[in-house]
Amino acid sequence: MTIAILGGTGKEGFGLALRWARAGETIIIGSRDAARAQESADKIKTRASQSKISGADNIAAASAADVIVLTVPFEGHVRLLKQIKSTLKPGAILIDATVPLAASIGGRVTRTIGIWQGSAAQQAAEILKGTPVVAAFQNISAEFLNGEADLDSDVIVCGDDDRANQIARGLAEKIPGVRALDGGHLENARVLEQITALLITLNIRYKAHTGIRVTGLK
């Protein structure tokens, strides 16, 4: 299984690439700039021994992957989805970690934008008709992903396709210290995205890097 991380030169995408490369996954870092993507891949090779990782532009990365993970800022969300729509392999799935923060239109970073479809992930599903879309990884700390220690975090996965959900949960649990939880249908993605804005508020107030843990589950 090949995983393309679009926006993989940013902190969130780079951190996911690093963790999955260490777990032995085959990774393609995608970026608008192929050279910059390869530079990030080379950096990961120095931190993850025997890693299978390369860099490419976003469209080439998406067309070669079985799993596409979207970690781009919201302002580039629709444009990139339209660019890759016709290039995706049959059977590919998309995991959307995008959060529609108001900062993307000049507003406050601590709140989300209302989207007609309900969430960024639902917007992705509408654009990529026929490709399963899962919402996950919005609430995991990029700072911790880029570190060396195990994480202490839950990743909630929301989606309407059982196979895609299972793949996303499996990838989450390849990150040491992460527990994957089934968050139900894709319509619940709006809640995950709003939690991100709350976590940013907590980070600002407490000068911390927060995640979430759900208690009471076995």
Structure, described:
- By secondary structure, the chain is of the alpha/beta class.
- It has a single domain, classed as 3-Layer(aba) Sandwich (Rossmann fold).
- It has eight helices and eight strands; from the N terminus they run βαβαβαβαβαβαβαβα.
- An eight-stranded mixed β-sheet has the order 3-2-1-4-5-6-7-8, with helices on both faces.
- The protein is globular and about 40 Å long.
- The two termini are 29 Å apart.
- The mean pLDDT is 94.
Identify low-pLDDT runs: none
Average pLDDT, to the nearest integer?
94
Q: How are the strands ordered across the major sheet?
A: 3-2-1-4-5-6-7-8
User: What is the number of strand segments?
Assistant: 8
State the major sheet: 8 strands, mixed
Please state the overall shape, judged from the principal axes of the Cα atoms.
Answer: globular
Report the portion of residues in β strands.
Answer: 15-25%
Summarize the structure.
Helices cover 37% and strands 18% of the residues. It is an alpha/beta fold and 218 residues long.
Question: What topology does this entry show?
Answer:
Layout: E1 2-6, H1 11-22, E2 26-31, H2 34-47, E3 52-57, H3 58-63, E4 67-70, H4 77-84, E5 93-96, H5 120-127, E6 133-135, H6 142-145, E7 153-159, H7 162-172, E8 178-182, H8 189-206
Parallel strand pairs: 1-2, 1-4, 2-3, 4-5, 5-6, 7-8
Antiparallel strand pairs: 6-7
